[in-house]
């Protein structure tokens, strides 16, 4: 057998050399046997590349053909590869290294010819309409396809005879193929880094030992012995890292039993993943969310999109509009290696270029970290015991309304995106103020942070809280209601959970909301958020502007951070999914501690799990104390750093740091969704209660908004009528204010414009920004039930 062709790029070449015929990460197939001259495809005369590169009957048959895509683009030139009974295609030859656009299994396919140059391949619900340059070229392809089909049928029958007693791989096994390969590639890279570190520290240790042997003066012995001890410690750390990573590699041997039956089964998965169904415009296309939300379950290595078949009877196999993002190469590069505190012997030296912690600081019995592990799920149980009022656990099921987005958009051409009136069909029955309040779903993280004596320990809980706010809407792609100017929302859980929250819409253009939360358990949070959005054709970028402030009463620690960018993909065509990307820098302005969190964007080619978040907590001197890791839709963990060692610079120009840490502790884990959540807008337990009617709230509260209430009840037609009435009422108020401003200008008087009721603008002493802060009076007005200052907005 010849050498495998280089069908996998980058680090996969190393896998091929180590493991031989390893399945391709892109196609889930074994590397093809190249029979082309010089190992290159294509060539020949004619626009489609001429005759195929290999004669019919060989192991691999490659060449250019035209493939029907849709009525807009017609036939498109594609590079086809026939190998092992499978016909795969790519946009270019270079794509063979990473992206297979579609595959059809010839063993069950029907081969037909329409005319002198056309070939039609059909397999179940999939059909390929292909065209060659000439009848001679068409005949070569047909001959090759027929021979490959006969061979594939024989192979299938032989496999069936040999393994008649074996059960086929289950559907769950299919999904297990990609994960082990990505993890294996990552572990190999870590192994290479550790190898470099061992070589470097080993050489330094050897030099020190040589110098020690040549010593003659006793006065010098102390200095040299200290240097030897330092380098010996570093060498031991990286040696342990090497051993641990090698253990991970060896553990992957067990996957061999899974890979063998999955190679064939994985091809079927690739067939589905290579397809772009070219969906038409529909309600999903308009459900962009004006808040940081998260991507749905379709965020996996292959994401079929859309639901409409092309007019030729085929489901289009390639995604003509799919956005492919490169892996984030500038993410913080570090490796964490878990150490056993029982075997960790503290060195008395000051390690150069390394940070050192004490395992005894990581109190396994009394630490606040330990309590967080046990309370991640128990907290939800406590919620059922603590409240004095029984909250609702369901809302009416979402009606199945269909609506064509194009019928709306065609009448709005030329208008600003933010000013296009949208029916409630694209909304969920919550306002933006209520969605902002959902950030408090995991408020108990801040309650635990109050108990932390160490500021860096406290920073870990604050970081976990900042990440948890993105999990509340992980499956929700519907748009919240835009609040009316002066609209408010309160969440008074002072007696039940120890906090009370108030939001007010303080500006309409641009939309801005102010938020203030007081907790009697020792913290206060406030923010003013303005949403900036950019529509980029295939996706919508949502950038929350404004800082979030958190202050702990007893210590005076004042934390500030900002939200990352949310991206809504497949706005026009395909199934919507949402991703978070960017960095969050959390700064304690009292102690100067920092936490850098990196939200890695989803990438088809990335080895990382989707929605990954990593970060490091460091003190004012830049010394790293904790490593944060997890995903923004599931959980966050924290590991205490014992030692850190800087490795050599990689080919990408990044320097990896090896952190030796204690075992990670789970600080936050997402609560499971309520039963029947998929029919209730995927609301969480808290979200189901946010719009529950309550007495004594202000007349401007979002719970009293009529169109939102009608939508929640399933009366969408009435809700649309009411929504138009409210919007027209708001426009009338704005026109009146504009007229008053013009009149004041003519009379030479000052006009202040709209003034928020419960918030006032002040310059923040920390950030220097002009923000809206709570000025007081709301809860006093609620106690007195004096709402005379509230405007009539509903």
Automatic annotation (TrEMBL):
<comment type="similarity">
    <text>Belongs to the OSBP family.</text>
</comment>
<keyword id="KW-0445">Lipid transport</keyword>
<dbReference type="GO" id="GO:0005829">
    <property type="term" value="C:cytosol"/>
</dbReference>
<keyword id="KW-0597">Phosphoprotein</keyword>
<feature type="region of interest" description="Disordered">
    <location>
        <begin position="340"/>
        <end position="363"/>
    </location>
</feature>
<dbReference type="InterPro" id="IPR018494">
    <property type="entry name" value="Oxysterol-bd_CS"/>
</dbReference>
<dbReference type="GO" id="GO:0005886">
    <property type="term" value="C:plasma membrane"/>
</dbReference>
<feature type="signal peptide">
    <location>
        <begin position="1"/>
        <end position="26"/>
    </location>
</feature>
<keyword id="KW-0446">Lipid-binding</keyword>
<dbReference type="GO" id="GO:0015485">
    <property type="term" value="F:cholesterol binding"/>
</dbReference>
<dbReference type="InterPro" id="IPR037239">
    <property type="entry name" value="OSBP_sf"/>
</dbReference>
<dbReference type="InterPro" id="IPR011993">
    <property type="entry name" value="PH-like_dom_sf"/>
</dbReference>
<feature type="region of interest" description="Disordered">
    <location>
        <begin position="155"/>
        <end position="180"/>
    </location>
</feature>
<dbReference type="GO" id="GO:0006869">
    <property type="term" value="P:lipid transport"/>
</dbReference>
<keyword id="KW-0472">Membrane</keyword>
<dbReference type="InterPro" id="IPR001849">
    <property type="entry name" value="PH_domain"/>
</dbReference>
<dbReference type="Pfam" id="PF00169">
    <property type="entry name" value="PH"/>
</dbReference>
<dbReference type="GO" id="GO:0097038">
    <property type="term" value="C:perinuclear endoplasmic reticulum"/>
</dbReference>
<dbReference type="InterPro" id="IPR000648">
    <property type="entry name" value="Oxysterol-bd"/>
</dbReference>
<keyword id="KW-0813">Transport</keyword>
<dbReference type="Pfam" id="PF01237">
    <property type="entry name" value="Oxysterol_BP"/>
</dbReference>
<keyword id="KW-0732">Signal</keyword>
<feature type="domain" description="PH">
    <location>
        <begin position="58"/>
        <end position="150"/>
    </location>
</feature>
<protein>
    <recommendedName>
        <fullName>Oxysterol-binding protein</fullName>
    </recommendedName>
</protein>
